[in-house]
Amino acid sequence: MSYILNTADDQKAMLQAVGARSLDDLFYNIPEELRLNRPLKVPEALAEMELQLLVAELAQKNQVDDKAVCFLGGGSYDHFIPTVVDAVASRSEYYTAYTPYQAEASQGSLQAFFEYQTLICQLTGLDVANASLYEGGSAVAESVLMAHSIHQNRTKVLIAESVHPEYRQVLQTYSANLPLQVQTLPTPDGFLDPDDLKKHLDENTLCVIVQHPNFFGCLEEVEAVGKLTKASGALYVVSFDPISLGLLKRPGQYGADIAVAEGQCLGNPMVYGGPYLGIMACREEYVRKMPGRLVGQTVDRNGKRCWVLTLQTREQHIRRAKATSNICTNQGLFALRAAVYLAALGPQGLRETAELCIRKARYAVEELCIPGAKPRFARNFFKEFTLRVSKNVPQLLEQLRNSGYHAGLHLGRWYPSLSNCITIAVTEKRTRAEIDEFAAAWRNAFK
Rounded to whole angstroms, how far apart are CA atoms 160 and 228? Predict the structure, then answer.
């Protein structure tokens, strides 16, 4: 491929088109100290043996003995991962397989993606699932781009404040230069009040987005929100917790048009926040507007079952103007792990996992509610809950960390009005002894 440098006239024309006076204007919102406006301090090249010694020396600085008990949540959870997930995903034919681009891609990879899509459809109660997105945040943003391609004459996006704040930040970035107005609806009581939503719905509403269970751990009024959304002609987008569907209704059962999720909890480790797995499913009528790739099942010329890339609506394969997304890869290995996890657990195993989460979370909140620590929201929750505390939250979390516990997330990081609140997640992995010992350290911190 030939690469042709832009001339000064080309640069001038492009700058005029975007309304910028100079190249520096394109980076105005990036702090000066973060800009690449100085020579890089790159050391001289090393011989291979010297390089290996340097890398080994640096690796020795890694701290891999963190045995703190994890009560962190907010989209990344310490769930149990069956050994079979690692056993299958570590096989070389899967571990090295990249996203299939052409019809002659490995049949094994295509079948794995097809099985993943099938399991996600069964999980969500919707008709079609794609072969994965980047992670939960971009899945929310992609759902809005998808909705806009369905209803191009509508531009208002209503998203609940109880949706993960980082998902909302990703959406703002995606929509910054699009004709969309993203409006965040307040959730002072820990959920989106359907009566409040009703006041904001109109004929220009493109979609309504809720997270269920939401970032605070609370359950949303998903059926009431869905009815109002559908009555307005808008699309209903739900960001869900896959594990919760072992007990809660599936998104397709309460009217979701598009369902998205973070798939980390399905057999994928926390790995310090990523990479993760974006899940998306939708109703069949919207399949041609779905981003990413869809693998389908068919028969070859000999009548034998086989798999092909049925749909791939991205700009690398088709004209840019007709693409639904610019997604240029997917999290295939994590999708495979999710498929193995779901197949290993089955419906009963998923239900038992969800039951353990909710029972242990309920037990934990009873043990942690002491003078100086009370529930912030009077709502039902799944595996995560929010407590309001009388202590300085960063100091409290640091004290508990020194006692051997990752005690939770400080909500003040995203919500100034909740600066005295902590969200705590309890998964099926937490034993009663761990919860009891955590509660003892918690009570000691309040003395």
Answer: 14
Q: How many helices (H) and strands (E) does the chain have?
A: 12, 15
Instruction: Note the pLDDT of residue 36.
Output: 81
Which parts of the chain register pLDDT below 50?
A: 1, 315
Q: What is the pLDDT of residue 1?
A: 38
pLDDT value at residue 377: 97
Distance CA 218, CA 187 (A): 11
**d(C-alpha 372, C-alpha 52), whole Å:** 53
C-alpha torsion sign, points 153, 159, 164, 165? positive
Residues 266-284: b if buried by 16+ CB within 10 A, e if exposed? bbbeeeeebebbbbbbbbe
What predicted TM-score, i.e. pTM, was given to this entire model?
Answer: 0.87
State whether residue 220 is helix, strand or coil. coil
Would you put residue 235 in left (φ > 0), alpha (ψ -120 to 50) or beta? beta
pLDDT at 132: 81
Please state, in angstroms and rounded to a whole number, the distance separating the CA atoms of residues 127 and 281. Answer: 7
What domains appear along the chain, each with residue ranges and CATH number?
69-78+347-445 (3.90.1150.10), 83-342 (3.40.640.10)
